[in-house]
């Protein structure tokens, strides 16, 4: 049951795996993006705090292992590959290996759930660029569709919020604080046919998770890990500022749920487990951070289902989604190339 696809590619962000990797990795991330050197030096320190090792690559190795078992147990007879945007294994190297193995047409699962330039089109651009770098015979790669509202992504977040709440025990008023990576407000405004699709999708998921985990509690959606030059507006409030506002309002305990992410990578274990936790403790707020899906079996099954729906579409010749015409992975207007404030037109 493979239709016309002959491989599945895990496409991710990548992260350093030792102190010497940190600066070259960060330079790959911010190339052409106008991120100030001072911000980069500060972020390098976050990585050095963990010996220069981001957990994201190990998390992707674990996801690959789980997917291999899931495919084998369900008759999906496709080899798995893994390539990153910013660090080894680099996507172009993976595509070269795939070509050497005779792969011609692959489906890609990107570890990014939502619409926007950074969380969607940039991965598509990565594919275009890497294929050009590899040249003749580079396999075709088609990104799977968005999964932000898929139960395989939402349900692990629900259970994680419920267990974080249970671990916290409330001393008064508890608030659920959902977080996602901030992006420039212009990037959010450009996503989707009517704009604001990135934040709208996040608000949808926050509402679903809160309603299932704790319908009696209030919740907020806020932002973390702001980058970029200070004069460029990004989505606000920042999670730390928001915790200060909540404490001032009389909230006593918070569960912080990073629904913007699929695994507990560095922006989770530093920006939340260190920075936001420290902010909370300084305010006397009880704090529990909810886990991300990682290798939750429901999440792993979701990836297999996203693959098999495409195998089915390909073998049946059916269009399964109204946005097939503009490239099967994107809703209309999902992730236009941004006009960057630095004036550099994105490709
Ligand atoms: C929307 C979004 C996601 C979620 C979707 C997805 O998962 O893809 C995400 C994920 C991640 N972001 C990550 C790390 C970084 N992001 C940076 C910078 C930026 N992120 C942006 C957006 C996003 N980022 C943007 C608009 C920038 C500014 C530069 C630019 O315009 O492109 C920087 C530069 C330094 C700084 O923070 O200033 C770093 C180091 C890691 C890896 C963590 C690890 O190593 O474990 C992950 C998974
Ligand atoms: Fe998109």
Automatic annotation (TrEMBL):
Binding residue positions for Fe-coproporphyrin III: 54, 123
Keyword Iron recorded: yes
Keywords: Cytoplasm, Heme biosynthesis, Iron, Lyase, Metal-binding, Porphyrin biosynthesis
EC code(s) of this entry: 4.99.1.9
Subcellular location: Cytoplasm
Reaction equation(s) it catalyzes: Fe-coproporphyrin III + 2 H(+) = coproporphyrin III + Fe(2+)
InterPro entries, per database record: Ferrochelatase, Ferrochelatase_AS, Ferrochelatase_C, Ferrochelatase_N
Recorded metabolic or biological pathway in which this protein acts: Porphyrin-containing compound metabolism; protoheme biosynthesis
Chief site of localization: cytoplasm
Entry binding sites for Fe(2+): 181, 267
Pfam families: Ferrochelatase (PF00762)
Function (record text): Involved in coproporphyrin-dependent heme b biosynthesis. Catalyzes the insertion of ferrous iron into coproporphyrin III to form Fe-coproporphyrin III.
Family: Belongs to the ferrochelatase family.
Protein name: Coproporphyrin III ferrochelatase
Natural source organism: Cryptosporangium japonicum
Gene: cpfC
């Amino acid at each position: 049951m493979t239709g016309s696809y002959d491989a599945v590619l895990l496409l991710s962000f990548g992260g350093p795996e030792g102190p010497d990797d940190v600066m070259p990795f960060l330079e790959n991330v911010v190339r052409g993006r106008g991120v100030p050197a001072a911000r980069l030096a500060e972020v390098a320190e976050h990585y050095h705090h963990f010996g220069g090792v981001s957990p994201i690559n190990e998390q992707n190795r674990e996801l690959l292992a789980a997917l291999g078992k899931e495919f084998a147990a369900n008759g999906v007879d496709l080899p798995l590959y893994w390539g990153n945007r910013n660090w080894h294994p680099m996507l172009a190297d993976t595509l070269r290996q795939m070509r050497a193995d005779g792969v011609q047409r692959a489906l890609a699962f990107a570890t990014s759930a939502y619409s926007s330039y950074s969380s969607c089109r940039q991965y598509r651009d990565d594919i275009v660029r890497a294929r050009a770098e590899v040249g003749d015979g580079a396999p075709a790669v088609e990104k799977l569709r968005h999964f932000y509202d898929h139960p395989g992504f939402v349900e692990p977040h629900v259970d994680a919020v419920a267990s974080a709440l249970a671990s916290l025990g409330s001393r008064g008023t508890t608030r659920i604080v959902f977080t996602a990576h901030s992006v420039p407000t212009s990037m959010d405004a450009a996503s989707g046919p009517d704009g604001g699709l990135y934040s709208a999708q996040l608000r949808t998921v926050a509402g679903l998770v809160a309603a299932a985990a704790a319908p009696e509690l209030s919740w907020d959606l806020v932002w973390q890990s702001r980058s970029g030059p200070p004069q460029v507006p990004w989505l606000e409030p920042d999670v730390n500022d928001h915790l200060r506002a909540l404490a001032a309002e009389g909230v006593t305990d918070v569960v912080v749920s990073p629904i913007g992410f699929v695994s507990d990578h560095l922006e989770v274990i530093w920006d939340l487990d260190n920075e936001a936790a420290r902010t909370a403790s300084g305010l006397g707020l009880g704090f529990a951070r909810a886990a991300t899906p990682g290798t939750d079996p429901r999440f792993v099954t979701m990836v297999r289902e996203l693959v098999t729906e495409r195998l089915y579409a390909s073998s049946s010749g059916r269009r399964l989604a109204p946005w097939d015409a503009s490239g099967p992975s994107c809703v209309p207007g999902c992730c236009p190339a941004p006009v960057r404030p630095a004036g550099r037109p994105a490709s």
